[in-house]
């Protein structure tokens, strides 16, 4: 079974060629940087000491070639590393998007939409950065090796000092990075939560204004934002301590190298040129150790973000896979046998193929639980939901939703035109759909009709217009079983009556379940069932239930 960490490893390792190319080129840059003070030392020992102009010009040409090589290596190495980083981050973003949009669900449980967006953007970028920093880490190591080899040729004590002193320094850098890793994880969690709360509040801004809850919403976001700010400051403080501690350690180490080199020169064990080279190399060593500090910090943050991404990718699905098959074409018969799920209590319900059924419940949670079971967004705790005698829990959710479409009352629209929202992925809008949903009236009031652009989530339309366009989209699928949840709560009574008649006519001989308390919709149904305490307690026509059931009258006519 593929886990979230397997996906991350695959995304990062998939850019191995670019990472290796970047590492080789960046190593050439660092090796060239290390050779610069060595060449200068040679110039002092050979050209200046001998007063030879030709020798001086020759070594200056060598120095120019070194600069050309190291400059080109850096440019192309950085390009390869950045390519590997961006491609890995892109693969991770795609993996997160696929998991979030997977028909078996499960990721959205307990997570705000903004949090998932943060994982798919900020965290994915930080994980992808691993591919960007690894080549430079290898390059810094190459620079240390070149420096150590050169120093060994000059003096064994100097070379051994660098070779033996580097591993403990790297180990200390790893230990120093642990607090940064922990605080970076908390920082990302707080930032993601703040993004989720912000997205949640913005999407519900009209409702908040309508009930006068802006102060409470503002206070909530202010608390969340301050928590995020405090976590960010703690992470920044950890970053500062991390960088400062590493700079102090490397500064002490470089000072020791320079001190030993100066002592050897004073004793005549190395030449003046060697001393200049040793001092230059000691100064150069600041660069690879600075790179190590940066790499270590980025890896710490990348590990923290990788844990968050892996948690999303490894989230258990809401429903298991299925190998069963629904008949094609499906007749559309629906049966619920002793279904218990959430507020549902051993619910029994049979919907013959082609019936227009009304379902009334005063409890919104009961309606939600029923919709979840019909659309296989969740499997019942006990009992079975069958379509054409096939248990839906044995069928893959994708195939279930080809046959059973559950249209929630709060469905969002997307950016694009009205027609594109209704048509979805189909080549054309079926005849009668716009009329049945009263979306033709919406188009008539818009400047470009169905070609009018709709903004994000359909915010450029009124609530009633959005609802009619969303209903048209559901009707356009012509699915064998259509489940509608309160499709007319935002329209006036005249329009509601027109929609009720239109839906009944358009869906004739196709199974349609309308979960609603709207008298206009219930009037046109073939049959209505009343659910109380998770069970069907009464059934009949709308008129019969109005006369006979007080609970029905309270739910529908109040």
From TrEMBL:
Organism field: Amycolatopsis rubida
Record-annotated membrane-spanning stretches: 20-44, 56-77, 132-152, 158-176, 244-266
GO cellular component, one term: plasma membrane
Domain ABC transmembrane type-1 residues, every copy: 20-301
Domain ABC transporter: 329-558
InterPro entries in UniProt: ABC1_TM_dom (IPR011527), ABC1_TM_sf (IPR036640), ABC_transporter-like_ATP-bd (IPR003439), ABC_transporter-like_CS (IPR017871), P-loop_NTPase (IPR027417), Type_1_exporter (IPR039421)
Name this protein carries in UniProt: ABC transporter ATP-binding protein
Record membrane topology: Multi-pass membrane protein
GO MF entries: ABC-type oligopeptide transporter activity; ATP binding; ATP hydrolysis activity
């Amino acid at each position: 079974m593929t886990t979230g960490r397997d996906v991350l490893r695959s995304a990062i390792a998939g850019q191995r060629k670019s990472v290796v190319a970047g590492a080789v080129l960046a190593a050439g840059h660092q090796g060239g940087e290390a050779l610069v003070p060595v060449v200068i030392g040679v110039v002092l020992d050979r050209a200046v000491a001998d007063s030879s102009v030709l020798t001086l010009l020759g070594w200056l040409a060598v120095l120019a070639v070194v600069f050309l090589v190291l400059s080109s290596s850096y440019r192309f190495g950085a390009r390869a590393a950045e390519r590997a980083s961006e491609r890995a981050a892109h693969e991770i973003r795609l993996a997160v998007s696929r998991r979030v949009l997977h028909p078996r669900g499960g990721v959205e449980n307990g997570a705000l939409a903004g949090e998932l967006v943060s994982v798919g953007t900020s965290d994915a970028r930080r994980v992808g950065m691993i591919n960007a920093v690894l080549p430079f880490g290898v390059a810094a190591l190459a620079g240390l090796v070149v420096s150590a080899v050169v120093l060994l040729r000059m003096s064994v004590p100097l070379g051994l000092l660098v070779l033996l002193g580097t591993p403990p320094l790297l180990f200390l850098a790893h230990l120093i990075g642990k607090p940064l890793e922990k605080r970076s994880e908390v920082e990302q969690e707080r930032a993601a939560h703040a993004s989720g709360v912000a997205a949640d509040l913005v999407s519900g801004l009209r409702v908040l204004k309508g009930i006068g809850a802006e102060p409470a919403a503002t206070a909530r976001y202010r608390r969340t934002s301050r928590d995020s700010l405090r976590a960010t400051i703690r992470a920044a403080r950890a970053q500062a301590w991390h960088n400062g501690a590493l700079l102090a350690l490397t500064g002490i180490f470089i000072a020791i190298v320079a001190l030993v080199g100066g002592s050897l020169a004073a004793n005549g064990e190395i030449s003046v040129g060697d001393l200049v080279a040793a001092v230059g190399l000691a100064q150069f060593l600041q660069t690879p150790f600075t790179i190590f500090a940066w790499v270590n910090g980025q890896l710490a943050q990348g590990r923290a973000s990788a844990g968050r991404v892996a948690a999303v990718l490894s989230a258990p699905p809401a429903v298991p896979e299925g190998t069963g098959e629904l008949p094609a074409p499906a007749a559309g018969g629906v049966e619920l046998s002793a279904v218990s799920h959430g507020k549902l209590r051993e619910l029994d319900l049979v919907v013959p193929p082609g019936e227009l059924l009304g379902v009334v419940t005063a409890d919104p949670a009961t309606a939600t639980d029923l919709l979840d079971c019909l659309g296989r967004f969740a499997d019942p705790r006990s009992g079975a939901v069958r379509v054409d005698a096939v248990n839906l829990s044995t069928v893959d959710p994708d195939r279930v939703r080809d046959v059973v479409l559950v249209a929630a009352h709060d469905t969002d629209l997307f950016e694009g035109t009205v027609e594109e929202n209704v048509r979805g992925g189909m080549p054309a809008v079926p005849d009668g759909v716009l009329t049945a949903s009263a979306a033709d009236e919406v188009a008539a009031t818009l400047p470009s009709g169905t070609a009018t652009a709709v903004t994000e989530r359909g915010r450029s339309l009124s609530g009633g217009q959005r609802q009619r366009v969303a209903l048209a989209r559901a009707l356009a699928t012509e699915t064998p079983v259509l489940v509608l949840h309160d499709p007319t709560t935002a329209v006036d009574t005249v329009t509601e009556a027109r929609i009720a008649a239109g839906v009944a006519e358009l869906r004739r001989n196709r199974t349609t379940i309308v979960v609603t308390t709207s008298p206009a919709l219930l009037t046109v149904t073939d049959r209505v069932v009343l659910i109380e305490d998770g069970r069907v307690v009464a059934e009949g026509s709308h008129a019969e239930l109005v006369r006979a059931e007080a609970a029905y009258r309270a739910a529908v006519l109040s």
